[in-house]
Amino acid sequence: MLSAFTPLSRRTCLQAGGLSAVGLSLPQLMASRTEGMTNPKPRRESSAGTAKACILLYMLGGAPQQETFDMKPEGPGSARSLFPSIATNVPGIDICGLLPDVARQADHLAIVRSVHHGGNALFHGAGVHYNLTGFANVPREGEPFLDRRDYPSIGAVLNQLRGTRHGLPAAVQLPMWITQDGPGREWAGQHAGFLGRKYDPLVMDYGYLKLNMDFNQAPATGEASLPGTLPPGFTLNQDLRGSRLERRLGLQQVLGQQRIGEGTPLARDWTKHQAQALDVLGAASTWKSFDVETESASLRARYGDDRLGRSCLVARRLVEAGVSLVTVIFGGWDTHSHHLEHTRDQLLPPLNRAYSALLEDLSDRGLLDTTLVAWTGDFGRTPVINGNSPPGRDHWASVYSAVLAGGGIRGGQVYGKSDRLAAEPVDNPVPVADFVATIYHALGYDAETTVIDPLNRPHHILAGQPLLGLFG
Predict the structure, then answer these.
(1) Domain count, the chain
(2) Does a structural domain hold residue 261?
(3) Which of 138, 158, 292, 354 would give a disulfide with 228, using CB separation of 3.0 to 4.6 Å?
(4) Number of C-beta neighbours around residue 337 at 10 A
């Protein structure tokens, strides 16, 4: 079964080499989409939001505000950034000097320097859930992993409110699950929670599961493959094309003529979903959005031929194809040690390249006005450098930076302010629920919008107030 608990990877996708491949996994995926389209979805849309889609760049582990968008050049000691700041193309706004290409896009950016949440900063899962849902996770001991008692992610909400478009789900996440150390340890907030499995976002898991610093350059073979290629579960094996597939389907029909439930609505629906799955396997034209090989070599190089760059390019292709939310995970920010080297050499350079390329590409194609690009993570990092060897910054949820661009956002602005240590908000504090509410507002949803759980109970999707001053 393709579900939030079964990542799409070579380990879990059934190959189209047997009867089960055309009679189990993809039909169940199609069935879940049809359910999402036919169930009632009470909602109320706001006319203020102009975005059709959102690309959420998620910095797994917690990016340091001091080394990205809140530099504190006059701050004392290690509260000051380890890197020099650089002027952007908007007078008065400075960001990290290792983000020069992003600095040239600052006229698109609304930098929010006062986001905070009350989640236990010891646990990444608390921050993940807050930032992907706008709500705190259901209290439980230890690290909060996926739990059906929790609130649904933004993507799950959109799966219910919008359903399938052009053969694709409303929400896709790539290139991996947000996980502590592998399958079964996925952090809270990534699936549909109490809405149920059928609204889970589609996670394109390309196999690299840990927070290790080589995340972005993981080898393109074995357990870790590069995004931007069509996963094996969505293509036919070479030896099962044409007449051989037809013969196999004919054999399946003969063997299954006396199936239990023949002629019932359930059996008829299964046949329909199987036909849809075969359409995907046979042509896969819609699913080609996941394949970047048709893009020019120069554009692929502009994004970067690594996991982040290729994921961002896929994200652009998916929103063009009609996907409402694409969440791109970029791991490695949990820099309790080697903070200087890792941020300088392995994190900021690919971020600078891919983030700026995405904004530029969307703008050039006329898509930025209708595509919100959000940048955030679990939390920020401590104002002080710790005593580890080599040293680093630890978790810090009391204040961190997040960024919005496009989708009706007025660029070239900074909202909120942290203190001189980048430790607490001192002007316009922004609970993370307000940041998530701003994403919903950009997409056309307001405080009256609800989703429906399996017991037919309505739930409001907003826990905060949108930052209306960022728009216009």
Answers:
(1) 1
(2) no
(3) 292
(4) 15
- Which element (helix H / strand E) includes 430? strand 430-431
Helix (H) / strand (E) containing 442: helix 432-442
Judge whether 190 lies within some domain. yes
CATH code, 304: 3.40.720.10
Total count of residues recorded for the chain: 472
Give the Cα separation of 126 and 128 in Å (integer): 6
What angle is formed at CA 349 by the lines to CA 84 and CA 385, rounded to 5 degrees? 50
Per the CB < 8 A criterion, the answer to whether 406 and 386 are in contact is no
How many contiguous H segments (helices) and E segments (strands) does the chain have? 12, 17
Q: Is residue 262 included in any domain, yes or no?
A: no
Q: Which tokens in the block code for residue 325?
A: 């939310």
Say how far apart CA 314 and CA 326 lie, in whole Å. Answer: 9
Residue 385 domain boundaries: 39-235+284-466
- The two three-digit tokens of residue 155, written as one number: 């993507």
- Dihedral angle, C-alpha 405, 327, 418, 82, nearest 10 °: -100
* Alpha-carbon distance values, 23 to 29, 72, 201, 275, 289 (Å): 11, 58, 22, 9, 24
In a domain, 441, yes or no: yes
Which runs of E-coded beta strand occur in 261-391? 325-330, 371-377, 380-381
Tokens of 41: 């979805």
